[in-house]
Amino acid sequence: VGSESLIGGEVNTKAPHDIGLSEAASAVNCDPREYRGAKTRNGRATFGGTNGSGTGVKGLKPWTQNAGTSYVVYKTTNVFWHASTSGTASIGSGGTDSAKFNAAALDNILVIVVDGIAPKKWDGQTTGWAALGGSPPAEAKYACVFVSKVFLAGNDAAPHTIYFSATNNAEQYDSSAAPNDAGSITSQEGGGDTIQGLRSCRKWMCI
């Protein structure tokens, strides 16, 4: 995985945000913080997995770690898998069978959320996921990264609340554990529409 300039060849000596405007228009970005017009081209490898006859896929999350290893995480019924150039393996199971999952990556941790279970994390190195640390909400259905924080929502016990992590720390949601800038925002408490999704891109987040 690298970045390919318009004049040809691979740019692998600079961080994504330092490449500048020499990238092809069809490229997609990786850095959730400061883009400055830089973009990183999709990887050249092709890989996938077989989920069995009649088994639907309940979400996909492509993820490239800082070290350059690329994965696609996907869910079938209540089983989560990762596919890479080296093969496919399960990383965990749980949650509502029919529910689509969401995931957000920050600092080499992939935060995975789905209806029915507490938020999980996967580091791409261990064979299975683990509970997300730092006092996250008991449940979440939606996740995204914005301004170097993980944002979570979809807790049935607090459907109007958005939780956000400390900056550059996917495992700190307790605002009382100083020093950090984690916290939560509650909108229309006690009434109104519940949060139905989170999406972020460059310098905006949509709720």
Walk me through what this model shows:
By secondary structure, the protein is mainly β. About 0% of the residues lie in helices and about 35% in strands. The chain contains no helices and 16 strands. The strands form five sheets. Strands 3-4-5-6 form a four-stranded antiparallel sheet, with no helix packed on it. The protein has a four-stranded antiparallel sheet with strand order 7-8-9-10, with no helix packed on it. The protein starts with a strand and ends with a strand.
Estimate the strand proportion: 35-45%
Strand order of the largest sheet: 3-4-5-6
Per the principal axes of the C-alpha atoms, what is the gross shape?
globular
- For the record, give the distance between the C-alpha atoms at the N and C termini, rounded to a whole number: 31 Å
Low-confidence stretches: 1-8, 20-40
State the helicity in percent bands: under 10%
Largest sheet: 4 strands, antiparallel
State mean pLDDT (0 to 100 scale).
Answer: 79
Instruction: Give the H and E element order.
Output: EEEEEEEEEEEEEEEE
Radius of gyration using CA atoms only: 18 Å
Strand tally, please?
A: 16
Helix count from the secondary structure assignment: 0
